[in-house]
Each structure stands twice: as C-alpha cells, then as structure tokens.
Amino acid sequence: MNRKYWAVPIGIMLLILAILVSCKKHTTGWRGTINTVDGITVVTNPPSPMLGETALSIEETLSIGNKDGGKEYTFAEIADLGVDEEENIYVLDSRDALIKVFNNVGSYIRTIGRKGQGPGEMQRPTNLEMTPANQILVNDRGARLLHVFERDGRYQRSISLARSSASFFSRPKVDSQNYIVARSMTIIEDGKATFILAKYDADMNELFRVFTYEYLIHPNTRNVYPPECFWDVGADDSLVWGYSERYELFVLDTRGRVIRKIIRDHESIEITAKEKEEWTRLAFGNAVIPPEIQVNWPAHRNAFSNIEIDEVGRVFVQTYEKAPDDGGYYHDVFDPEGRYLTHIPLKAAPKAIRKNNLYVIEEDKDGYQHVKRYKVNWEDLSQPRPRHP
User: Fold this and answer.
1) At 8, which helix (H) or strand (E)?
2) Most buried of 9, 63, 119, 130 (most Cβ within 10 A)?
3) Half-sphere exposure of residue 152, counting CA atoms within 13 Å on the CB side?
4) Distance (Å, whole) CA 92 – CA 99
C-alpha cells in the first residue's frame, strides 16, 4: 500500500497522544493522576502502590539498650532521638532529663544535660531535634523552654515559651533558616483545647499559622482516638503536614503557600472489640468503664499517625493497618513528587531517616526500650538523587 495513505492516520494518532499526555501526567507503573487545581499540584494516588512490598526491605544493623549492661547503655524512658551527619545517635531520656550520645557502632560517647532548673539543665524534656546548623534543640515541656546545645554537649541558650498563651509545645522541627514549626495547645475556660500548628522565628515569634483545630474537654467524657495533626520539614525547607481525619497531605513552601496536595485512596480501619478492651484496661485499670464516664468511640481509625521525611524528600506515613505477627503497622512511602511508591511493615514509627538508615524506638516483650537502626534497601527502584548535596 502507498505510504501516503498512512501518513494522515499516523499523524492524527500522534496528535491525539500528545494532547492526552499534555492534559494529564502519568508515570510508568503508577495509576494515579497529577493535575493542577487553582495553582496547586494535586497528586491523587490509587489504593495500590506503584511498586510491590519487595521494592523496599530493611535489615537491622544496630541495637542500643541493655538492661543488664552498664548505666551508659540503660534508659529510664526514651522520649525521642536524633542523628547527626556523622551518624552519631542522640537519645533523649525524658525521665532522667538527659541526652546520651552514641557513635555509629553503638559505643557510648557522652551525656548531655542533667535534671534541674539551672542553665543547661532540664525538667521534663519530650522532643529532640537535630538542626541543619548541627545543633541540638530540646523541647523541655516541664520548664516551658527550648534548650539549644552544641553536638559536643556545650550549652548555648534557652528560649522561653512562658510569654506564649499556649500551655504545651509539641514536636518542633527546624529548617535551614532556624525557623521552627511546632504545634501549641491552649486550654480555655469553656472546656475547649485549641491546637495551633504554626511557624516561628528563632526566638519563637509567630510568623504564620498553618492549621488550627479544637477538642472539647470534659472530666466525665473520653473521646477516643481523636484526629491529630502531624508534620515534618524537608531538606529544601518545605513543610509536609496533614490532619489525620482524612488521608490528605499538604506541601507548603517557606512562605506558607500550599504548592502540592497528596491524596491516597484508602479503606478505613475499623476498631475491633479487642482494641476497645485494651484501651479500657489502660484507661481505667480494668476492662470495665466506670458508670459515670461516657466514652465516645469513632467508627474507624484515623487515616495515619506519623509523618517522617528522608533526605531525598521521600515521605514515610504510618498507617493503622496492622502488620502480621505483631510486626507493628504498615507505612506508606511516597516519592518527592507525592506518588505512592510502596507499602511496608515497621515495628515502630521512624524517628530519623539518614543515609538510607532508619532509626526507631522499640520495646521488647518485657517492656524495655531499645534504639534500633535498620538499613533501608531499595531493590526495584533506582535511588532518587538528593535535591541538596
């Protein structure tokens, strides 16, 4: 057949293909969509990830914590941890109000801080953050202070939170400009607790608010598993946050503008009778709810319970889908563009992810805490390049 008869049909087909590609972006092996709505990139993910569970595997390479060892390797109550560029591990002990530092093979190096009310001393620390300036920021909720230490243990300063009307600050995250993203909570007279996620300068002056929500508090009412706000700051200073009532994550630029929205279609997890019984036992000491207490149960679990970003911008989201054999919960992993990559079980939520190592706090069967490090292996996916060397 003469080639000229094929030229027009082939040309039309190529034109249609080009129009389809320009109208809706797709990624090979990924069945979601990426669209622009009111200037915001909206990434809509299907229930299934782009890659199978074998795309990512973890291997334990370090465990710190020995109840039969020396005092340097025992912990009263681990609240948080951080990891520096040399892979030294900083473990915050809330009960003893100090930080124990270990090198990358788990050997004890030093202790930072102690319990007290003087300079460099702490009362009830709850969070630890390694800043891009290579300093240690500690949220001392008991003293309403943020303490700043050098990595060698030298105390630098404390930032007072007392001038704020907020009662508590939670999970401060620091960007390269020393700006802090944290959530505050204030209890007001009419029984409402107001939570505010906001960005602050280095002296805790509020720059802008991200999100506000409220809870009703009554002494004879228990609202079980209310939704919460979770967040983390990426290497490019972007903020990823979400309110766990819905599986939606928002990516904000440094000025607080939403630049991306990440949605994942998922099935809600029902709360079982066994979970209700366990909660009741923990709350009241037995399996029976006191008659004067009203307990409000939601129909389903929240969409997620933690957000952590690694160095190349991948987002790890802890879900309430239980892993088999008491293996913790499944975590969803999204690439820097917000595409749903894989779905993996982890025993505990990551506290830090650095150089393809994942750091968690785990409890053994006797309730003793350990710091664990796992090597993250990507089997079916070439490593994305870091956006910032």
Assistant:
1) helix 4-23
2) 130
3) 1
4) 5
